[in-house]
């Protein structure tokens, strides 16, 4: 171990040393090999956050196999698609998710093993196909450690399935070279001496959460990570205070939920950096956080699963409001118009990126791969622009663009205005078909606990601050807006609430 044996992880009050985690990963790797898991086999990891997630990842890589992470909120139908599409040889899961796993296994002809962390494997055989064995994770750990299975830089290391918010989820192929480049570049861009205590509420099975764990492998000094099983805002505050956390990585929806907590009652004076990614962050959300948690800075970043979860980040001390920062080392970013021409600083266009950290393609999807990587550049499908100093600004998803009467309406522009209303906690904007204008702007909002506002008031509020083509003609108030498994606004679910959606 490069940094020696040290206390490296806290989970639900229990402390783990790096040597302990390393030894368990070595044993599980040998156990996987004993089950017949061979280099290149895909192994699905379906668990809420726990120490066994990073242990499983490291074990799978040591065995030469391919980590296939799946967020624990997956439905049986979604998991069945992933198992069948990936041709997974095994699933590592926990007892509370067994019903989802067993319901999904019938359509997975290559699945051979269901490995259960925390017991319950003996109860499974009757619920599984006859040719699928039930294995206790603890049994794998009884194996004697072996050596690492050799793999090349270009061998597949991870198969990450996209969230499927714009269609059926696709497997993103990331090689060992990809994972090394994106994690090393992220570390180089964001390292801050003395920042060693982190709080991790992100699902480790999401690309953003995985990259956070991989960045830690490049650390130059021992650190301590406090891991949440899943994000709970009240518990986040308690953990940040009790462990004197200096840094955390979140998504904007998490920040909004934290702002509903009595932050002033907690001692968060150790917190220096709040890294925000996976979705655009409203300026007023960042300003409110920094006002209520003085001494901490929100640093926005940007990436997607296809880029290894990273593209740009706001360097400590060089944050530019509204921007998602500068491209990280080894990542080139250009903005292109619909004709594929590079745009100068200023105008909006599609964000395109080139790097050794970018995926090699989509699993079993050569045509989609060719389109996404045409010309040697990853076309992200996101709209944004660069300023004269190379800072990147993300406007919105290209597929979320609303065209109302021939005018482009970016949902984020409308959402940011609605969030300025003192009663609004969250906002989501989508387009609905309109026979006269093509599309009409519809907003969904969730109010603060003490907030009071009606649809007409919110329409008038937006109309006073937006052009005639942009303001929503319809506002719907919900108790909570739907979020994806990583906490991003789920516009696909919002569209499903509209007539014909």
Structure description:
- This protein is an alpha/beta fold and 501 residues long.
- Helix content is 26%, strand content 25%.
- The strands form 6 sheets. Strands 2-1-11-10-12-13-14-15-16 form a 9-stranded mixed sheet, with helices on both faces. A 5-stranded parallel sheet has the order 4-3-5-6-7.
- Helix 1 packs across helix 2, helix 3 packs across helix 4 and helix 6 crosses helix 7.
- The longest helix has 17 residues.
Properties at a glance:
single chain, 501 residues, alpha/beta, nine-stranded mixed beta sheet, five-stranded parallel beta sheet, 14 helices, globular
How would you summarize what this structure contains?
The chain is an alpha/beta fold and 501 residues long. The protein is built from 14 helices and 26 strands.
Topology, pairings included?
Layout: E1 7-11, E2 14-17, H1 18-34, E3 42-46, H2 52-62, E4 66-69, H3 76-86, E5 90-93, H4 98-104, E6 113-116, E7 133-136, H5 137-140, E8 156-161, E9 171-175, H6 176-190, E10 197-200, H7 207-215, E11 224-227, H8 233-242, E12 247-250, H9 252-258, E13 273-276, H10 283-292, E14 297-302, E15 312-313, E16 326-327, E17 332-336, E18 349-354, E19 361-362, H11 366-372, E20 378-386, E21 392-397, E22 402-404, E23 407-409, H12 411-418, E24 424-434, E25 438-447, H13 455-463, E26 474-478, H14 491-496
Parallel strand pairs: 1-11, 3-4, 3-5, 5-6, 6-7, 10-11, 10-12, 12-13, 13-14, 25-26
Antiparallel strand pairs: 1-2, 8-9, 9-19, 14-15, 15-16, 17-18, 18-20, 20-21, 22-23, 24-25
């Amino acid at each position: 171990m490069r940094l020696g044996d040290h206390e490296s992880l806290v989970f639900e009050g229990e402390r783990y040393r790096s040597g302990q985690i390393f030894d368990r990963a070595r044993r599980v790797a040998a156990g996987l090999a004993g089950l017949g898991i061979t280099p290149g086999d895909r192994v699905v990891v379906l668990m809420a956050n726990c120490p066994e997630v990073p242990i499983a990842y490291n074990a799978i890589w040591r065995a030469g196999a391919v980590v296939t992470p799946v967020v624990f909120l997956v439905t049986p139908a979604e998991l069945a698609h992933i198992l069948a599409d990936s041709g997974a040889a095994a699933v590592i899961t926990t007892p509370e998710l067994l019903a989802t796993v067993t319901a999904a296994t019938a359509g997975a002809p290559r699945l051979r093993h269901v490995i259960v962390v925390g017991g319950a494997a003996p109860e499974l055989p009757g619920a599984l196909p006859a040719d699928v064995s039930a294995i206790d994770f603890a049994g794998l750990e009884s194996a004697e450690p072996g050596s690492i299975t050799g793999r090349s830089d270009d061998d597949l290391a991870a198969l990450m399935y996209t969230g499927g918010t714009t269609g059926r989820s696709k497997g993103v192929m990331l090689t060992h070279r990809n994972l090394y480049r994106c994690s090393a570049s992220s570390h180089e861009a964001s390292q801050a001496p003395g920042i060693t205590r982190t709080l991790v509420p992100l699902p480790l099975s999401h690309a953003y959460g995985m990259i956070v764990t991989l960045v830690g492998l490049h650390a130059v000094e021992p650190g301590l990570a406090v891991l949440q099983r899943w994000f709970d805002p009240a518990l986040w505050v308690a953990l940040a205070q009790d462990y004197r956390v200096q840094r955390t990585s979140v998504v904007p929806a998490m920040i909004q939920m934290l702002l509903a907590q009595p932050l002033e009652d907690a001692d968060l004076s150790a917190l220096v950096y709040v890294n925000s990614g996976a979705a655009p962050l409203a300026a007023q959300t960042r300003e409110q956080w920094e006002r209520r948690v003085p001494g901490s800075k929100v640093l926005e970043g940007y990436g997607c699963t296809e880029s290894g979860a990273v593209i740009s980040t706001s360097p400590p001390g060089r944050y530019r409001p509204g921007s998602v920062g500068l491209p990280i080392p080894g990542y080139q970013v250009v903005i292109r118009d619909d004709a594929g021409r590079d745009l100068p600083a200023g105008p909006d266009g599609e964000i395109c990126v080139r790097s050794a950290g970018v995926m090699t393609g989509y699993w079993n999807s050569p045509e989609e791969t060719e389109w996404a990587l045409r010309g040697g550049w990853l076309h992200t499908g996101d709209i944004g622009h660069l300023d004269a100093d190379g800072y990147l600004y993300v406007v919105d998803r290209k597929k979320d663009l609303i065209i109302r009467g021939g005018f482009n309406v970016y949902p984020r522009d409308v959402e940011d205005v609605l969030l300025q209303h003192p009663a609004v906690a969250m906002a989501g904007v989508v387009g609905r078909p309109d026979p006269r204008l093509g599309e009409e702007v519809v907003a969904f909002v969730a109010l603060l606990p003490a907030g009071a506002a009606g649809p007409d008031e919110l329409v008038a509020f937006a109309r006073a601050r937006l052009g005639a083509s942009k303001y929503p003609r319809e506002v719907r108030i919900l108790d909570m807006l739907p979020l994806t498994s990583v906490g991003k606004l789920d516009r696909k679910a919002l569209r499903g609430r509209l007539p014909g959606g």
